[in-house]
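[step 3/7] inverse_fold.run input=structure_tokens len=279
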């Protein structure tokens, strides 16, 4: 199973997030390459991929080993190491990588504080260089948007020389997932698509709309003309009753319940979705 791909394993220590972004001319790359655990680290395993590097690497990181030692141990214990590629980021932002000498050209990696970028069967080193440069220059972005920008830049630099097929974005954070009851901030996958990075960006936008958050100071007061508008739109969609109840029931059907809190204010994202639905 040759996962010809480019990927970046990374973390944002200020946000306590770890993640992996990857693209490949390979079906469902997100089922093989990316692994991450909050406050532990992230692992990307590819080339003639050894999927056991994922759980095995996280177990070693969980024991407190630095990224360099994790890579050393995984590779040393693997007779197929010459055909493997691996990137690891640990809980402190340390990073390390391995590109076996038998990986198909172009193959190589770049590492830095909080990231490991790697790729094989690429058009050239410029693809991995773009991953590294974009990550280093994107410190102001949230980790998910930063990693998406890395994929976009790497593809623009040439990408996988066989083409495109699938992509994925994995982000973890302790209690950072749905309703604060999951560590999985997002696990978005494009399994088979002509332009998987563009499709991943579309899905990411949808994910943010459904599960993201707007600062409370940006919410709008539901009073006067705006309250009348929202009430009228809900009624046209078949949701009668008090404004708070009707809005809550509609939001539940549209999977926007995490963005609704009573009938006195409304998240601008919810208002936009309601206007689109009732146009």
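[step 3/7] decode complete -> sequence:
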């Amino acid at each position: 199973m040759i996962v010809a791909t480019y990927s970046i394993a990374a973390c944002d220590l200020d946000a306590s997030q770890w993640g992996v972004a990857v693209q490949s001319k390979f079906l469902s790359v997100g089922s093989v390459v990316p692994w991450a655990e909050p406050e532990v680290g992230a692992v990307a395993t590819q080339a003639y991929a050894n999927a056991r590097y994922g759980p095995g690497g996280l177990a070693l990181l969980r024991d407190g080993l630095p990224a360099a030692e994790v890579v050393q141990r995984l590779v040393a214990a693997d007779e197929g190491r010459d055909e493997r590629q691996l990137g690891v980021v640990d809980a402190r932002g340390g990073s390390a990588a391995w590109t076996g000498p038998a990986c198909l050209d172009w193959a190589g990696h770049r590492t830095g504080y909080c990231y490991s970028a790697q790729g094989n069967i690429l058009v050239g080193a410029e693809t991995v260089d773009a991953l590294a440069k974009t990550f280093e220059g994107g410190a102001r972005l949230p980790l998910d948007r930063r990693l998406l920008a890395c994929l976009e830049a790497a593809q623009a630099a040439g990408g996988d020389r066989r083409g495109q097929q699938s992509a994925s974005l994995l982000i973890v954070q302790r209690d950072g997932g749905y309703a604060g009851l999951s560590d999985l901030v997002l696990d978005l996958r494009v399994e088979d698509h002509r332009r998987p990075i563009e499709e991943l960006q579309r899905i990411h936008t949808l994910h943010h709309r459904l599960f993201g958050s707007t600062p409370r100071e940006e919410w709008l007061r539901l009073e006067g003309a705006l309250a009348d508008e929202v009430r009228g739109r809900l009624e046209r969609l078949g949701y009668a009753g008090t404004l708070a109840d009707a809005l809550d029931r509609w939001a539940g059907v549209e999977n926007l319940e995490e963005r609704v809190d009573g009938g006195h204010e409304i998240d601008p994202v919810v208002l936009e979705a309601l206007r689109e639905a009732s146009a």
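[step 4/7] annotate
The radius of gyration is 21 Å.
The chain has two domains: 2-211, 216-277.
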